[in-house]
Design a protein that fits this description.
The complex is a heterodimer of chains A (about 350) and B (about 300). Chain A is an all-alpha fold. Chain A has a domain of about 240 residues. In chain A, the strands form two sheets. In chain A, strands 1-4 form a two-stranded antiparallel ribbon. In chain A, strands 2-3 form a two-stranded antiparallel ribbon. Chain A is globular, with a radius of gyration of 21 Å. With about 300 residues, chain B is an all-alpha fold. Chain B has a domain of about 200 residues. Chain B has 14 helices and no strands. In chain B, helix 1 packs antiparallel against helix 12, helix 11 crosses helix 12 and helix 12 packs across helix 14. In chain B, about 50% of the residues are buried. The chains are: A mainly alpha (about 350), B mainly alpha (about 300).
């Protein structure tokens, strides 16, 4: 009843192909954007920014990247943590080597460097498939983390092996470092995520995205109708790594501020982002956001309930949290293997018919 | 020369340990097409449970006032692993029939988290020295006569692994259940149509891999104590798997040996030039190199694709 497209006529091909064809959708997305850009920064404080919002944005961006590779092109990757590390360390080297460089440019460049690394590690995908490839991408994960741990040049030979993000400004506002206002950091991340989400949406609707999906659905058939697997797979690896690299740069610079490779970028990061993609929905842009919200909020919620609500000891609560997270993931996969995005579709379908059953 | 020999032997022994974990993966993958990431946590869980049965500071001792002898403890742990296998089938796999492989894979990661948390809550997360009377220390005979340093425990592990493979081979080739398992591995639907119960088979195969996990847990536990890092040996077993092929039991053993030797030799001879600790990723790169030549692994079934 509230979500009905009756009476909304499309008179041109352009209108028919728009991202949001229904007025209610446009209104809703516009509302979300306005709230996210104008209302949230007014009320934001350090806790919300650090514990929830910036984390959510960074992981949503990383999940977008992985979704392009795994959800749209069908190449399972477990190297996300390693690629995030590339983005983080590339941005660190760029920012410290060229202090004059515009910060946005530095982050985009580190995304580009990650894309190049991603293409190199994507090369085996031309030869190996499925789980063999998934395990092969673990090579990237372990090798890259080892590299950043061992080669002093990457962390400027700092004695602790940690990298610390130097304070940088955008339009006169600090966006990194401990002095930065949470609102500025939040807006900085949000802008990146919004622009990149739009780009991703358009990319997957276009020629490149369709060739990815053809490769995903059946690579031999795609090859027969004239899609080059080399081109499709490597562009997917490049674009995906670019996104993940930017996410890694934001993760390190804006969210953490300091990082140490074996902890910040270990294999659990890879699994975490993969969980976001699967729970959100493979092959869905919206799913990446829903999945990120789910995976970021659930642990916080569980911790709050267990520690504050029932007075668990923090250590026991941590174990119980891991256990519950595992249970939730399994439960979720059983109930809706197509993810939160699919639930959203079902909800929209129901809203359209409401209050009638069909 | 002697040093090289020692390195190779210790590599072979480490390889046997990896192969023990990889075996469990292969069994489950063959029978149900599930890539069971939780295998390493299975080993940890089995080790923890065994420790609890036979030690004097566990739950079991607290409840009943006595600890089980080792052999009884092993049987009891096997019982626990069978219950776990049954629960996995009943609560998870049954509901995920016909899903994409990646969904099944993710569900086993969820399972790994669950068992990890459960193990920590039930048994605590401190390191537990597991002593079930396996010989420790270097072999005197080899040290005196050939000047070779070889751990006794690793020799035992190698023997156990060899026995395990023979037993599994006989189980698969000669017994009724083994034949049914191979039928399921070949073709689920054909197996169903001749009256093999998939569910029973799955419970059996998960129990068998639970048994393999128990052996791996005992070996690793005797070597370095039962601790959380035991679950990470799954990551060590993955390159072994892709090297040997997901579907081949001999592949898991040979892959394990190649990875073990390659890793040790590389660490000792190439490691110092690049800063060391290359063990973590060298196995993956080695396996990746093999894969580029044989995409299905050394012994994996040829992948035939039809449009």
């Amino acid at each position: 009843m509230f979500y009905r497209e009756a009476g909304q006529f499309k008179t041109s091909y352009k209108a028919d192909q728009a991202i949001f064809t229904i007025t209610q959708d446009k209104f809703f997305v516009g509302l979300v954007l306005i709230v996210a850009f104008c209302v949230v920064p007014i009320f934001i404080n350090d806790y919300w920014a650090n514990a929830i919002l910036i984390q959510f944005l960074v992981y949503a961006l990383a999940a977008l990247g992985l979704n392009i590779l795994t959800g749209y092109c069908g190449q399972v990757s477990l190297g996300t943590g390693g690629f995030m590390a590339v983005g983080a360390y590339a941005s660190y080297k760029l920012v410290t080597s060229f202090p004059e460089m515009n910060f946005v440019l530095a982050i985009l460049l580190s995304g580009g460097i990650t894309a190049a690394v991603g293409v190199v590690f994507g090369l085996p995908s031309l030869r190996i498939k499925g789980f063999y490839l998934a395990v092969a991408t673990l090579a990237a994960q372990f090798f890259l983390v080892w590299l950043f741990n061992k080669v002093g040049w990457f962390f400027n030979y700092s004695p602790t092996g940690m990298i610390v993000s130097p304070p940088r400004e955008m339009f006169g506002f600090l966006v990194t470092g401990p002095e930065a206002h949470p609102g500025a950091r939040y807006l900085f991340c949000l802008t990146f995520v919004a622009v990149f989400a739009l780009a991703a949406k358009n990319l997957v609707r276009g020629r490149v995205g369709r060739s990815w999906m053809a490769i995903r659905d059946m690579d031999i058939a795609a090859e027969l109708i004239g899609i080059r697997p080399l081109e499709a797979k490597l562009t997917a690896f490049a674009v995906s790594s670019f996104y993940i690299g930017v996410a890694g740069a934001l993760y390190f610079n804006v969210w953490l501020g300091t990082a140490e490779p074996t902890e910040a970028f270990d294999i659990n990061q890879s699994f975490f982002v993969l969980f976001i993609v699967i729970i959100g929905g493979l092959g869905s842009i919206l799913g990446s956001f829903l999945g990120a919200a789910f995976m970021v909020l659930i642990p916080i919620l569980m911790k709050n309930i267990m520690v504050d609500g029932f007075g668990f000891a923090v250590g026991a609560a941590k174990h119980a949290e891991v256990m519950l997270l595992g249970t939730l993931i399994i439960l979720f996969l059983i109930v809706e293997p197509h993810g939160l995005a699919r639930l959203w579709e079902i909800l929209k379908e129901k809203l359209r018919k409401w209050p009638f059953p069909y | 020369m002697l040093f090289l020999l020692e390195t190779v032997i210790s590599g072979l022994m480490a390889g046997v340990m990896y192969a023990l974990v990889a075996l469990g993966f292969v069994l489950i993958f063959k029978a149900s097409g599930i890539f069971n990431f939780a295998q390493g946590v299975f080993a940890l869980f089995a080790g923890l449970a065994l420790y609890d049965f036979i030690a004097t500071d566990g739950w079991f001792y607290e409840l009943f006032g006595f600890a089980l002898p080792v052999w009884l403890g092993i049987i009891a742990t096997m019982g626990v692993m069978i219950i776990v296998a049954w629960l996995v089938e009943f609560l998870v796999l049954r509901h995920l029939v016909n899903q994409e492989p990646i969904i099944l894979f993710m569900s086993t990661i969820g399972l790994a988290y669950f068992l990890e948390g459960l193990g920590d809550i039930l048994f605590g997360s401190d390191v537990k020295p597991l002593d079930i009377g396996l010989p420790q220390g270097a072999s005197d005979y080899l040290l005196d006569n050939f000047n070779l340093y070889v751990e006794k425990l690793e020799v035992v592990a190698a023997v156990v692994a060899a026995v395990l493979v023979v037993v599994l081979a006989i189980f698969f080739q000669k017994t009724r259940i083994g034949r049914a398992l191979r039928a399921v591995a070949d073709d689920h639907q054909a197996a169903l149509s001749v009256g093999i119960s998939l569910r029973t088979i799955w419970v059996i195969v998960w129990s068998v891999s639970g048994f393999v996990a128990l052996v791996a847990g005992v070996m690793w536990g005797s070597k370095s104590g039962i601790q959380f890092s035991l679950s990470l040996i799954a990551l060590k077993a993955l390159p072994v798997l892709i090297l040997g092929g997901f579907t081949s039991v001999p592949g898991a053993i040979i892959g394990g040996l190649i990875i073990g030797v390659g890793e040790k030799v590389a660490e000792v001879f190439a490691g110092p030039y690049v800063g060391g600790a290359i063990e973590n990723w060298f196995a993956y790169v080695l396996a990746l190199g093999f894969l580029l030549i044989r995409p299905q692994g050394l012994f994996g079934e040829k992948i035939i694709e039809r449009v």
